[in-house]
Amino acid sequence: MMGKCGGAISLVCTALLLAAPQAAAQEKKTLTISSWGGAFQKAQKEAWFGIVEKELNVVIKEDNTSGIADVRTQVASGKPTWDLTTQGAYSCALLEKEGRLEKFDAETMKALTDIPTTIGRSEHCAPQIVYSVAIGWRDKAYPGKVPEGWAALWDVKNFPGQRSIRKHPIYALEMALIADGVPMDKLYPLDVERAFKKLEQLKPHVLVWWSSGAQSAQVLKDGEVDMVAAWNGRIQALENEPEGKGGKIKTTFNQQIIVSDSWMIPKGAPNKELAMKAIAIMSRPEVNARISNYINYAPSNTKSYDTGVIPKEKLPNLPNSPENFGKGFVQDNSWWVNNADAMVKRFDAFLQR
Amino acid sequence: MTTTSLADEVGRRDHAAWKAPNEAAYRRRERSETTVLAALAVPGLLLIGAIALTPIAWLFWLSFRSGSDFTFEHYERLLHPTYTLTLQTTFELSFLVTAICIALGYPLAYLISQVRPRLAGFLLLLVLFPVWTSLLVRCYAWLVLLQRRGVVNSWLQDMGLIDAPLRLMHNFTGTTIGMVHIMLPFMVLPLYATMRSINRDYMRAAANLGASPVKAFWGVFVPLSFPGLFAGIIIVFVLCLGFYVTPALLGGGRVMMWSMQIERNVTYHSDWGAASALGVVLLAMTLAILWGVGRLIGFDRIVGGR
């Protein structure tokens, strides 16, 4: 939202750009990158964009995105303004299926070798960061007890109180199945009937079905709910912030659902060659690793952990660090790409009954 | 307005077989006035055409397209329970909010219309004040007030009125409270405008003819205030049908409005057809309601305030 200029302001922006010396404009090309804004985009800028600008001798122009619909609109317009955008790995897989992305060339693919395909790497999607969906809880609500996994979310006897989970089937179904006893490595294809049956049990205890990361953090911090299933970065930020009405917040990576965000190039992007080079640079282990020094997100390149760029004391906070990765599982995007539409409809009906 | 009344007058005179000495001049004047009015309206009409009608027409077109084919699939999808339930919620909430707005707004507008002008101005300012504050800010304010450990609950608990916190938000109740707050001015303003123009002599005449104050109020004042009431009802109800932010923030995710389904469709489905179909349905229902109300009481009575 911050980056969206009003009409008048953007006119001024354009005027200033036009007024820039012609010579400089000819020397340096502009690479337009859109991302989620806020703390994350700031971290990306500090960790990566500066390096890309220097190596490729380009100027990076930043924009914001609020989701997959933006990419669709850009591509549908026939003249996308973005050279590079970041979206969830699942959205990337969906856009890939819809044929709205540029295919990476062989050189770029080589640069992506150490990013596992399991977290969403493909010919159109380059995972850049890894995060996870984990349990966060108010320490005061369960003194001396630790909710070890998704079963605890359902266990209202030992862990009474209100819950908050996302208003979307995308993590809820996996959580439900694991809570019902399905092993993490035998989840897919998801047993939808079983999952919804299990969710029905949880429904009376969910006070808030959150629709933004900020909301999931707010309800926990204010003590509106006692336990959330939310993005690890959001919960960890609360651990470090001054306490709210809800008191001290804790989290665990046990049974975490590992997901990622990917770089992608909208079909018809004006500088796609440059964009691919930028992806290659940002995927290099020693560059990729830098992101964790600016924000609580983990690098996507497995070799990043060998570079020594990430300080040792940071490792316990990163979902895919060698010690944490095995505690959870990676979400299967391919299942969701084919089933999300039906699941969202069913979930919305379930929510309203 | 001027031209029609002029024409009416001329027509009536014709009927009475009475010719004005300067009738030709009248006619000329009428024609030139019509031309001028039409010319003045052109920029407005063009603007409305460009910024309102074109997108609506485009949405309508999209809602019947799948790729390059004609299709009803976007409308068939709407038969899924998720949409029928949402439609039910949307209407229930809109009815409820409108009813509460009437119950709260009518006495308030009556009070404002009866007090001294200076006090009335001050009271109107209080009614308008929230309208100048961002909708989002007002919703967040309710969040602070209504949540489990919020101001209202801790108050009630401190006073010993309740033991456990009430569930005031993250549900239908919270959404209703927030929406009533936002909609109330839209009920009060048209009501006040109509009430102020009601001649108090009618009430005195009713009293003079033996009506008790209560009877005079219900038999004379209330019917005269109907145009304002209907205008308020229509504005509030129609705005409620398309509400998004308040239910999203105060509904805890379980109050699903039609507008949210539109957003979900734009976000999760690969083309705009599905969302367009939802938009078309909402528009059609709104127009049907307006048409029904118009048939029932006549539009000029509402918009003309007469």
Output the number of helix runs of chain A. Answer: 15
Percent of residues in helices of chain A comes to 40-55%
- The structural class of chain B is mainly alpha
Individual helix count of chain B:
14
Radius of gyration of chain B: 25 Å
Beta strand count of chain B = 2
Largest sheet of chain A, in brief, is: 10 strands, mixed
| CATH class division of the largest domain in chain A | Alpha Beta
Strand content of chain B: under 5%
What is the helix/strand order of chain A? HHEHEHEHHEHEHHEHEHEHHEHEH
- Category by helix and strand content of chain A: alpha/beta
Shape of chain A: globular
Q: What CATH architecture of the largest domain in chain B would you give?
A: Orthogonal Bundle
CA-CA gap between termini of chain B: 14 Å
Instruction: Tell me the span between the first and last alpha carbons of chain A.
Output: 34 Å
* Number of individual domains of chain A: 2
The fold-level CATH name of the largest domain in chain B is MetI-like fold
- The proportion of residues in beta strands of chain A is 15-25%
What's the number of structural domains of chain B?
2
CATH class of the largest domain in chain B: Mainly Alpha
Question: Top keywords for this entry?
Answer:
heterodimer; A: 353 residues; alpha/beta; D-Maltodextrin-Binding Protein, domain 2; globular; disordered N terminus; B: 306 residues; mainly alpha; MetI-like fold; two-stranded antiparallel ribbon; 14 helices; 2 strands; flat
Summarize the structure.
The complex is a heterodimer of chains A (353) and B (306). Chain A has 15 helices and ten strands. Chain A is of the alpha/beta class and 353 residues long.
Describe the structure.
The complex is a heterodimer of chains A (353) and B (306). By secondary structure, chain A is an alpha/beta fold. Chain A folds into two domains: 28-129 and 260-329, 3-Layer(aba) Sandwich (D-Maltodextrin-Binding Protein, domain 2); 131-258 and 332-352, D-Maltodextrin-Binding Protein, domain 2, CATH 3.40.190.10. Chain A is 42% helix and 19% strand. Chain A is built from 15 helices and ten strands. In chain A, strands 1, 2, 3, 4, 5, 6, 7, 8, 9 and 10 form a ten-stranded mixed beta sheet that branches. The longest helix of chain A is centred in the C-terminal third of the chain and has 20 residues, at 333-352. Chain A is globular. Chain B folds into two domains: 1-36, no CATH class; 80-304, MetI-like fold (Orthogonal Bundle), CATH 1.10.3720.10. Chain B has helices at 2-15, 23-62, 73-76, 81-114, 117-128, 135-146, 151-158, 172-197, 200-208, 213-241, 245-250, 258-268, 273-297, 299-304; strands at 65-66, 69-70. In chain B, strands 1-2 form a two-stranded antiparallel ribbon. The two termini of chain B are 14 Å apart. The A-B interface holds A 67-69, 72, 94, 98, 162, 167, 207-211, 222-224, 245, 340-341, 344-346, 348-349, 351-353 and B 80-82, 85-86, 89, 147-149, 170, 248, 252-254, 256, 261, 264, 266-270.
